[in-house]
């Protein structure tokens, strides 16, 4: 087929491009969300100028934090207007060899039930050196700050939150990875295992990377992105390792436990000097593409593009595509991002370059998919800023549910736009649901006239009385719950005899069901996806004996084995 990008616009900025510390402006608003200023083609509605950290144009200009406080001593000097950063974090932030990637989130529960504080926390993945430069989590010191006078004091609460790790921090992605709505943190690291910090809802996190199979301890992570590649309603993770195998992890669950399984093909996982990794639907055909931005490091290293094709009842297939002009085999890539620059509904690609050689920025227009439908959704916080950390689910008439995360970290060296972009192919949206990190949910219908447009979803306001839920068309495989939300229909319960005799076991899936044979497996094994074979269960599911303990259970004389071993050791000592 033709190339994905056929037109390039390049421009040098300031002669030489530097690749030092990543710096972002974080809005002081919103619920558990994150960072980045608008890049959407649609002009968002202006916010009336407010007192505090807002510019005259109405755009929020700085960052806030959650409700954890540290009291200021009465004899401490009164801070002057501006943002005060903890000394250790300030030193780290000024060292280009340490600060690697920041992200915004609200790790603490709201100050009031179901009401966000409207402030961000800043997570910083540092590149530690010995016992210097742990990962940081900055929040606003409420007692020492006076936002109305422009005074914001930040305090590092990483130790209390359990995320002050010493490692080679690289990429960060933040969103409801394991949680229903709260922000979790995934960090891929260099010279150490990755982290998957699960939000406990009390201001603390617990690292579940090893338990879920994401630790990858011997690789060196770089770019990372969150997406739902198989459309099962779970957040999957794709990331690149520096000159190591790239990973595409699908989130799986069984018995209430979660694991991630790598489905990367040999071509997809082929090592490269990767920087940023993107996951987006560039041609609006409902299938996500993954773009690897590489740097010509000790030789040519072209960028690469893959399409992840969803398949019913099996893993997605992976197809390599021709990225066209965006191949850039001699490009010294330092980052990549997507947005719709010209408002035509097709995502465009921007690449930055630099490192040890000056190269211009490159902007590529999407060249395929002009006839496909699309929808772009922009959730807002209670103050009108972009709702970093929100989850958007779009229900369609024929293709089921599509999930997007408004990521607050979005990888390595670059920040993604705070927009949920959906390619629809020839399908149409029927309804959508936005979940904010504080648990608030808005469900609304999508009219046919709203196809191929940008929708802004305001944060739900408290209203007197209980309004009846609006009628929604949820699409195939889903039905509207009495609370007004579209939920997965359990076909196995509603239609007990839906499966044929040769495959009588019905398994409910997200938006559908599948049938498998009634194969029974011995302890420690489970039926494969299609039920045709028994496969070993993953060890970290827990509750199953190890290989050594299974040996004892199978041996009829196992109670005598310790006695025999003891006698052998005794005779050896003699």
UniProtKB/TrEMBL annotation:
InterPro entries: Crtac1, EGF-like_Ca-bd_dom, EGF_Ca-bd_CS, FG-GAP, Integrin_alpha_N, NOTCH1_EGF-like, UnbV_ASPIC. GO terms for biological process: axonal fasciculation. Signal peptide: none annotated. Residues 37-96 are annotated as: Disordered. It holds the Pfam family EGF_CA. Residues 488-535 form the EGF-like calcium-binding domain. One of its GO terms (molecular function) is calcium ion binding. Keywords: Disulfide bond, EGF-like domain, Signal. PANTHER family: CARTILAGE ACIDIC PROTEIN 1. This is Cartilage acidic protein 1. It comes from Pelusios castaneus (West African mud turtle). The lineage of its organism: Eukaryota, Metazoa, Chordata, Craniata, Vertebrata.
